[in-house]
């Protein structure tokens, strides 16, 4: 009899974009603490009881960066990766937010710094191949092209 590996979905991934001076920039955060310390990443976080995935994206943006998002989209894709310590495959729905270049970022304790970087620089800074694959998808469908209005998420609970 074969063993099944569970597929779990308990977190989200959020890429924040800004069209600064007619050039797209991606917000990356440098992790501090136990998990992925020193690594650059997008906003991510766990879905709390009673929350939808898009509500988690709004909450995590506010908690990790102080941003109150007013333009949020489903990226129409998921990140997926294997976690050895859980012996499980994790799937995380991806979201994209657009913000103004003058927005103020206020980091919480989970991050030590942030950067607005080009897609090319983000590609170099992100740690995992799955993140870079997702970044390529977002560039094609959310920076180089306008997203479908059907993918727009609510921004109020």
Fold and architecture overview:
This protein is of the alpha+beta class. The chain has one domain: Nucleoside Triphosphate Pyrophosphohydrolase. It contains 3 helices and 9 strands; from the N terminus they run βββββαβββααβ. The protein has helices spanning 53-65, 119-125, 129-143; strands at residues 7-8, 11-20, 23-31, 40-41, 43-46, 72-83, 88-99, 111-117, 152-153. Strands 1, 2, 3, 4, 5, 6, 7, 8 and 9 form a 9-stranded mixed sheet that branches. β2 and β3 (23-31) form a beta hairpin. The radius of gyration is 15 Å and the shape is globular. 29% of the residues are buried. InterPro entries: NUDIX_hydrolase-like_dom_sf, NUDIX_hydrolase_CS, NUDIX_hydrolase_dom, Nudix_hydrolase_domain. It comes from Kosakonia pseudosacchari.
Shape: globular
The helix tally amounts to: 3
| Backbone CA Rg | 15 Å
- SSE class: alpha+beta
Write the CATH homologous superfamily.
Nucleoside Triphosphate Pyrophosphohydrolase
Which residues form runs of ≥5 with pLDDT under 50?
Answer: none
Query: Mind telling me which CATH architecture this is?
Result: Alpha-Beta Complex
Number of domains in the coordinates? 1
Give the overall average pLDDT. 94
Largest sheet: 9 strands, mixed
* Beta-strand proportion: 35-45%
Beta strand count: 9
> The CATH topology, please?
Nucleoside Triphosphate Pyrophosphohydrolase
DSSP helix fraction: 10-25%
| The first-level CATH class name | Alpha Beta
Distance between the termini: 45 Å
Order of helices and strands: EEEEEHEEEHHE
Keywords: Hydrolase
Organism: Kosakonia pseudosacchari
Pfam families: NUDIX
Protein name: NUDIX hydrolase
